[in-house]
Fold this protein.
Amino acid sequence: MSLERKVISGRAVPIRGNEVDTDRIIPARFLKEITFERMGDFLFQDARFNEDGSEKKHPLNDAHYKGANIMVVENNFGCGSSREHAPQSILRYGIVALIGESFAEIFAGNCKALGVPTLSANKSDIQMLLATVEADPSATLTLDVDSRTVRIQSNGKEDVIQVTLPDARRQSFLDGSWDELGTLKGNLDKIKETAASNLPYFTNFT
Amino acid sequence: MSKGTLYNKVWDRHKVTTLPSGLDQLIIGLHMIHEVTSPQAFAMLKEKGSKVAFPERTVATMDHIVPTDNQFRPFFDTQAELMAKTLEENTKEYGITFLGLESGKQGVVHIVGPENGYTQPGMTIACGDSHTSTHGAFGALAFGIGTTEVRNILETQTLALSLLKVKKICVNGTLRPGVTAKDVILAIIAKLGVKGGIGFAYEYTGDVFENMTMEERMTVCNMSIEGGARIGYINPDQTTYDYIKGRDKAPSAENWDKAVAYWESIRSDADAVYDDEFHLDAADIEPMVTWGINPGQGIGITENLPNPAGMSDADRETAEEAYVHMQLQPGTPIKGTKIDVAFIGSCTNGRISDLREAAKIFEGRKVASHVQALVVPGSQQVKAQAEQEGLDKIFIAAGAEWRGAGCSMCLAMNTDKLKGDQISASSSNRNFIGRQGSATGRTLLMSPAMVAAAAINGVVSDVRELQEVTA
Ligand code: SF4
């Protein structure tokens, strides 16, 4: 898959709730694995399943949303623990972009590091979007990172909403540079120079 | 944009360059790692055959999965054992200091860093853990990161970051008796909300913070992230320097003055410019208790549970959800709510001063018969100190369990968990649904002394009533 994330289209799954924290996205007891491989299996575990393993009513258990690759959420999504397991579980479940009213910072940064855009829109647009995909799970969304818009097509109708995405993030999705490691590594000499000239504590103030 | 603040000064010192994306590349002076969020990062390194660029600037310990009842190896839990082993092997392979169980220095990462002198003013500090904000108590820029960023630090000692705004949080005046650092931060979050700090670093200033000990300052900064602020800090002063002096990794005596000069140079200027300010009067704060499912849903111990009807839309929805989960009623007092479990510990309140405060309440009293009380020191050094002072005997005599160092029931990745819909009085930092290990479990956050009072009475109590009796 190319690293560029210019346009993402597909169907969306609605996840209602404010302040959905990362403990809810993936409860701590599933963090006891030393790889992220199985994290997709545990996405929203406690919201989706009863203790006896039977299913609760949840959009991710609803066959209509099977195959959705976009998640629509409300505000301060991903607050709490910095665990990258949360965006990993979302990505590995098959979600490649999120649209919401707002996202917690560490969470949005972790998503970015995985190449997953988190787009913000105002409350009324998010409510419209949630209502649309709840009424019509087959609605198609087209996220355009460049123009910062989302086009929604449902039952022959079309809407376009504006979304926000910080400039640096937008740029990194457009040119595929969201994994910064290579860029950071290119400056190793400069890193050593900066530390030597600016940071006396690197040598314990000798 | 802010100017002349500690945040700006430390940022500028650590800046390598502005990247093509517009983000700044910042050096991370201290990198702390633990067993849960680092193995995947090391795996990424191994896959590519990469090296750790500055192994001496990373330090590791083990806390989340460590059982606090039986710490003999191998751990009974095979997943926990594998995690422990993986961290041991990774740190050995890459030449990273590891403060493991045999070192006598193991503990919750945010307690271990300061108590060994790793944490110092004017540093940038990162760890794959959101409560890294704790280290801001020393006047460092300290924040939580994800695992991919852990990898970036291992390979380059830097991160690509965007500048935050700075909000000055002023609390002036004198705290009333029985009101602690935990109550101050819970009151701030209750006022500003859990989203109030998004996009900001919090600078805590004013009499109240200046008069606090380092341990109290750590409690405050620890919970910055619960208010949405990825960073919270307090300008370093004599209290800070006195705390650091003589610790294991502190600057040596002959370099001490140079260190202090650097630390003084990064303090916020008197005429620094802030993006926003918030003021709170110390006298208005009383012992706090959370009643809901996020740390912003807190009230004073003498208050009644709030009515969702009067709230804004988003707050009302969250409050309604909280009342369903917590099985509590609006309009009723929080005081008197029956508890099942009392937990004293965590990186918020697992330090020696917290245990001393709790011990004062436990001394000569008994834990209510229906309550399970756990006292969990934040580190092996805290444990040793507490035992030297005889605090362990007080806890045990009161009927509480005295455990080994670890995160314990703060997040229940180990054997300590709530069962069913048990309700716990907890000195930790998160009351999220499922946080303490049961999907239906319920958490009331409060100070360690308040937890002790709840443990004794078996119900949420006003600790000041017990303190009066003691005094
Ligand atoms: S004590 Fe709790 S909050 Fe602190 S590091 Fe451990 S799990 Fe995280």
Observations:
- Chain A touches chain B through 61 residues (CB under 8 Å).
- The helical segments of chain A are 22-25, 45-48, 85-93, 105-113, 123-135, 167-175, 181-185, 188-198.
